Amino acid sequence: MNEFSEQIVSELAAITPFKILKSGKSLPVLLPFYHLVSDQDLPFRNNYNYPSVAHFEADLDFLLKNFRAISLSELVDGGDLSKCFHLSFDDGLKECYEVVVPILKRKGIPATFFINPSFVDNKDLFHRYKASEITALLKARNIQLSLQRTYADLDSLDEMAEEIGLDWEDWLAKNRPYMTLEQVKKMQDDGFTIGSHSMDHPEFELLDEETQLEEIKESMEWLTGKLSPGIKAFAFPFTDFGVSDQIFETCYRENIFDVSFGTAGLKKERFPFHFQRLAMDQGIAMTPKKRLKEVYMAYRLKAIFGKKYAKRF
Ligand SMILES: [Zn+2]
Questions:
Q1: What is the pTM (predicted TM-score) of this model?
Q2: Is residue 148 part of a domain?
Q3: Each residue of 200-239: pLDDT tens digit?
Q4: Is 294 part of any domain?
Q5: What is the arrangement of strands in the sheet containing 274-276, beginning at the earlier edge strand?
């Protein structure tokens, strides 16, 4: 059923001009996000897609042709943003500074970068990258293994690394996958905005509410202390699935963040300062036009057929 629905979306999208799909004032603001852009093969990123430089630039050119690029403060200011997009990047990888920022500067596109304080300066590595790196290393030794790779398995991942002689400190010193605080500060000086992405990227649905709140609070305090951002922005790691209204209400009441983000695609939200973003690196097999046509067509079908139909996407 799922496949059938996706096929219908794809076929309808193919025959409908994008101009028509993106017209109308009631559409949500488009918030595309990526993790990194690189022409290199990065084994620790094997579990995830990422676009090449050429693909990324084609995405940006398509976005610029069809939408107006806005800053985080313009997003927060609100109004009719249905013809606008705000770009963001998660996880604080070094390619953001080395590859992405020069391209954005050249094209004059504002963006927000969401970073994890525990990983800044290469102090530690995200558990899913650890799993991916271990898998790649074992594969090179002809061992095929499908790893458990949630936050809850962090200890077993570290034990496994030790067993196969993989020292994360050495690995981090050699590979330096993340940005340094100095690089992040330079980006901020250049006008880019920096937000928090939790301390160390846990799956929030695996945490109790107290720990969820701690992850948000601690990381936002770190961000405020180190970077004093004008707007306090938070992007939930993975998704905001499993995060209760109470958490949002506490964050607004205690002024923990001003604005927050999930990853549910093109979607309107119940809180005015909570937004959903679209994972562009999940659609890198498609041209940006095809990808966005399908996203907008799916949104429109959901609007027509309601929640029952929406569940299939
Ligand atoms: Zn992330």
A1: 0.94
A2: no
A3: 999 999 999 999 999 999 999 999 999 999 999 999 999 9
A4: yes
A5: 274-276, 259-262, 233-235, 193-196, 111-115, 87-90, 32-34, 278-279
